[in-house]
Amino acid sequence: MQTRLIDIRTDRDTALNEAKKLILDGQVVAIPTETVYGLAANALNAEAVKKIYAAKGRPSDNPLIVHISDYSQLLPLVKEIPEKVKLMADAFWPGPLTMIMKKSEVIPDITSGGLDTVAVRMPKSEHARAIISACGVPLAAPSANLSGSPSPTNAKYVLDDMNGRVPLIVDGGACEIGVESTVITFAADIPTVLRPGGVTPEMIRGVIGEIKIADAVLHELKEGETAASPGMKYKHYAPTADITIVKGSLESFCEFVKNKDCFVLCFEGEEKLFERFVTYGRADDGLSEAQRLFDALRELDEKGAKTVYARCPEISGVGLAVYNRLIRSAGFKVVEV
């Protein structure tokens, strides 16, 4: 398969027309969003969704997120819209927030990973919403990377993973946020955050009050436990390099890595302390860390890193999302110094 790349910023009509034609023909197209790039197909077409799994090499019991361009498109996809979902949509849609509800009959089992629920979001990216609107159908769109590798935040990294696997990549430039959306389920007694992202638990509590944070946000799923959200079940976001997160002060971190044959994943301003390094944002600034994390993980591979020790982000606000991705890229290897 030959993979074309069209820049929607400079050739909007062509990008929209080509994406629409391919998606309505049951194909998969890589599209930009404000979080990461996604592999988009008609969410209501089971055969098209199968092609997403094939392109990613993704296990088919890992549910996909369904993307809409307007709130009116939500109701046909779910059995009912809880009142708290309406409040959340008013506050955070369009934006990096995915909400899980009981699905309607129109959602194929393959789209929902065999679950009786469906995950839905309305992206903030105008490019993404324009593509969804042009197609006239909701789009299933997991991150546009090979399963397990870091999610792509620019078209170059999509092409690295998907060249020859999908017919079209729509280039919309660098992603604004850099990590996937927050996922919260309303199919539980208490709304529960299953994956942290740009919409933080603190922001959510400010709108709907009590929520829970799933244990799987910071820990591996228990044996036999079902993955209710993307990013929960399998090792994710991992470069080829072996990563270990190191908790502790900068001074103790420096002492720990001294004389080790390794690369360091550190914060901006700390570069002078290390011989081989890649930075991922500023310390105590979760937004800048999120924007840089996945690119930094790919840069480690580009530099030939084999062993990496990573400075630990603050585990609050958007930093919770950064830590959630980093600990999975490290296969849950953490040391304290």
Condensed summary:
With 337 residues, the protein is α/β, with parallel strands linked by helices.
Fold and architecture overview:
The structure is a single chain. The chain is an alpha/beta fold. The chain is 29% helix and 19% strand. It contains nine helices and 16 strands. The protein has helices at 12-24, 46-56, 83-92, 126-135, 155-162, 201-208, 250-257, 286-302, 318-329, and strands spanning 4-7, 29-31, 38-42, 65-67, 97-102, 117-121, 139-140, 168-171, 182-185, 192-195, 212-213, 242-247, 263-266, 277-279, 307-311, 334-336. An eleven-stranded mixed beta sheet has the order 1-8-2-3-7-4-6-5-9-10-11, sandwiched between helices. Helix 1 crosses helix 4 (126-135).
Which stretches of 5+ consecutive residues score pLDDT under 50?
none
Percent of residues in helices: 25-40%
Strand residues, percent = 15-25%
**SSE order, as H and E?**
EHEEHEHEEHEHEEEHEEHEEHEHE
Indicate the radius of gyration in whole angstroms.
19 Å
Overall pLDDT metric = 94
How many helices? The count is 9
What is the topology, as strand order, of the major beta sheet?
A: 1-8-2-3-7-4-6-5-9-10-11
